[in-house]
Amino acid sequence: MLKLDRVFCHEITTPFAITDLMARGMDRVFDPTKIKAVIDHVTPAKDSKTAEQGKILRDWARRHAIKDFFDIGKNGVCHAIFPEKGFVRPGYTIIMGDSHTCTHGAFGAFTAGIGTTDLEVGILKGVCAFHIFRQNMYNCGMFAIELPKETIDAFFTDYAGKDVAMAMDIDGDQIIIDAEGKTETIDFKVGEFDKTLVKEGGWVGYADKNY
Predict the structure, then answer these.
(1) How far apart are CA 111 and CA 37, in angstroms?
(2) Contact 16, 53 (CB under 8 A)
(3) Computed over its alpha carbons, how large is the radius of gyration of the chain?
(4) Which helix (H) or strand (E) holds 63?
(5) What is the dihedral of CA 199, 166, 141, 154, to 10 degrees?
(6) What's the DSSP call for residue 65?
(7) Which of 3, 20, 71, 93 is the least crowded, having the fewest Cβ atoms under 10 Å away?
(8) What does each C-alpha distance from 109 to 4, 5, 78, 131, 172 come to in angstroms?
(9) Integer angstrom CA distances of residue 112 from 15, 23, 78, 141, 151
(10) Can you name the residues that pair with 112 across neighbouring β-strands?
(11) Model confidence pLDDT, tens digit, residues 151-182
């Protein structure tokens, strides 16, 4: 269970959390100064449904005196505007109901995209539960690479409880592990398309160049 430094919200997923909290008689926030909200996915609204989503978020921000609410005209893409405003800092723990929340890891923060239930708890109590488990994916922020299960099992066996630093050499197809003076490499394969995305700064850079 981790205490949250920030809870980021936008008009697509947060209204579901807001309406559920209201239905449960729990319409409150743990700290309005740590909640940041923006209307960013559909702006301006394209129909009555998206207009209602924006209204729910807008009314909620006003009701709880959330100062850092970026409405239409002052808004932007959530993954860009929040760092630009200085809301992301190294060492912060941040959640948002968005699958691309890991983008903020580029600024040294621990960030996670979560579902509605975890978002509700974050809004209400300022905490989130994280479970450490073995999986065959290494999340690199912009993409994930898949490793054999036996490789991951060996990694947890060898490095459990140790101070581990990991780096990635995309061109060399290697993960470099430095654990308390011991260095090891894990080989993997990344497709040329993924390498291109990394070199060009992700999808936006690739699209700007090719479309």
Answers:
(1) 16
(2) no
(3) 20
(4) helix 48-63
(5) 120
(6) T
(7) 3
(8) 11, 10, 15, 18, 27
(9) 19, 26, 14, 11, 24
(10) 95
(11) 777 777 777 777 777 777 777 777 788 877 78
Q: In the structure encoding, which two tokens stand for residue 89, read together?
A: 């800092």
Structure tokens that stand for 141 in this block: 């922020």
CB of 209 closer than 8 Å to CB of 200: yes
Task: List the structure tokens of 190.
Answer: 């990344």
Amino acid at 6: R
Tell me, what DSSP letter sits at residue 140? -
pTM above 0.90, yes or no: no
pLDDT single digits (tens) 109-129: 888 888 888 999 999 999 998
Going by DSSP bridges, is the β-strand pair 182-187/174-179 parallel, antiparallel, or unpaired? antiparallel
111's tokens: 């960030």
